[in-house]
């Protein structure tokens, strides 16, 4: 198989930098870095070398010299840059929410719903919180059927990109008021809506009752979730542990913390116990590195699935 020609758009950002690190670790060599006009001429680390950043323009991304492109940029810029690249034949894996709920665009968590990957040139990467939740819910649903999910999230600052990371470093922890950086419709933050809508799409359960309260916390990397699940059939905590121990991209831990999980590849689940207030209720604590499986790593795993299914001509 020919070596893929890969672009990373948003290479100077929190997710883009991790994507470059993971691509270099995997031995990719034909990689180019793109960002806004502001970054042109700067360089970003790529393994033991540096890549000079190019401006991401529709013309440059559709010039016919890329096979695969990761987009780690905001929604509006993705909406502008992805379609021309996809139309020119580039497989576009987008991390924004521009296409996640679009009809015909697969929304993929590698290891959870790989089967929805068809020949689409645009593949959407879910919200980081939906990603880690889906990894844990899928095996429980297959075994006992999900009846209801409730959760509270404790999301790290890096989940909102470099500007939020700077805000964390500049804020006095004693007076920490880091803001919520989400849109509010009077009842829900858009993060809470996305978590419900995207989890439903990923699991193919359009009516799944799922209610979330999402909060940003002064943590650098690693999103935590307290999750309460009701299943249609009884499921003992020990059975859930066995199912999750075998689930792709999931690891069991007694009490995972963001600090311990940052820099690792798996979704960590601990405190799996009966919810004493529900006959078929389980409670779980789920922690994941939002920049890796929550974003860059999942996108690269999607690319690997695409290349496995449609190898490039040698
Ligand atoms: N952070 C996470 O944990 C996470 C998880 C899942 C999904 N996501 C999604 O991934 C995307 C990137 O997030 P992030 O956290 O990496 O954000 P970030 O740290 O703010 O980085 C944003 C990147 O977008 C680039 N950019 C901005 N305007 C551009 C333009 N007009 N043309 C080309 N590039 C442009 C920036 O380049 P310059 O340096 O040149 O401005 C920078 O490289 C967002 O859609 C986010 O919602 C993030």
Q: Specify Rg, calculated over alpha carbons.
A: 19 Å
Tally of strands: 13
Q: State the end-to-end distance.
A: 5 Å
Bound compounds: NADP nicotinamide-adenine-dinucleotide phosphate
Beta-strand fraction estimate: 15-25%
Known CATH architecture of the largest domain: 2-Layer Sandwich
The run of helices and strands is EHEEEHEHEEHEHHEEHEHEEH
Instruction: Kindly state the percentage of residues in helix.
Output: 25-40%
Fourth CATH level, the homologous superfamily of the largest domain: Dihydrodipicolinate Reductase, domain 2
Oligomer: single chain
Number of domains: 2
Describe the structure in your own words:
With 314 residues, this protein is an alpha/beta fold. The chain folds into two domains: 6-126 and 295-309, NAD(P)-binding Rossmann-like Domain (Rossmann fold), CATH 3.40.50; 129-289, Dihydrodipicolinate Reductase, domain 2, CATH 3.30.360. 32% of the residues lie in helices and 24% in strands. It has a seven-stranded mixed sheet, sandwiched between helices. It has a six-stranded mixed sheet with strand order 9-8-10-13-12-11. The longest helix has 18 residues, at 292-309. It starts with 5 loop residues before the first strand and ends in a 5-residue tail after the last helix. NADP nicotinamide-adenine-dinucleotide phosphate binds at residues 9-16, 35-36, 38-39, 56, 72-74, 77, 95-96, 128, 158-159, 161-163, 290-291, 294-295.
């Amino acid at each position: 198989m020919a070596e893929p020609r890969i672009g990373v758009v948003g290479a100077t950002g929190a997710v883009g930098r991790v994507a470059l690190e993971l691509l270099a670790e995997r031995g990719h060599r034909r990689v180019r870095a793109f960002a806004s006009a502001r970054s042109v001429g700067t360089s970003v680390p790529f393994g033991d070398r540096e890549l000079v950043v190019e401006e991401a323009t529709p013309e440059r991304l559709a010039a016919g010299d890329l096979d695969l492109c990761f987009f780690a940029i905001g929604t509006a810029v993705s909406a502008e840059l992805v379609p021309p690249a996809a139309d020119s034949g580039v497989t576009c894996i987008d991390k924004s929410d521009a296409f996640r709920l679009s009809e015909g665009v697969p929304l993929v968590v590698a290891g959870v719903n790989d089967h929805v990957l068809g020949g689409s040139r645009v593949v959407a990467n879910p919200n980081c919180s939906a990603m880690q939740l889906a990894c844990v819910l899928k095996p429980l649903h297959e075994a006992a059927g999900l009846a209801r999910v409730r959760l509270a999230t404790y999301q790290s600052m890096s989940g909102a990109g470099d500007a939020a990371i700077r805000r964390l470093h500049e804020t006095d922890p004693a007076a920490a008021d880091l803001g919520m950086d989400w849109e509010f419709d009077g009842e829900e933050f858009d993060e809470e809506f996305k978590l419900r809508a995207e989890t439903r799409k990923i699991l193919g359960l359009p009516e799944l009752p799922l209610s979330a309260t999402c909060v940003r916390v002064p943590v650098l990397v690693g999103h935590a979730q307290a999750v309460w699940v009701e299943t249609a059939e009884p499921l003992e905590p020990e059975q859930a542990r066995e199912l999750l121990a075998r689930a792709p991209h999931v690891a069991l831990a007694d009490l995972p913390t963001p600090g311990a999980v940052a820099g690792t590849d798996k979704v960590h689940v601990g405190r799996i116990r009966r919810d004493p207030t529900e006959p078929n209720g389980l409670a779980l604590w789920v922690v994941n590195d939002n920049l890796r499986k929550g974003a860059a790593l999942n996108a690269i795993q999607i690319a690997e699935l695409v290349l496995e299914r449609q190898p490039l001509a040698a």
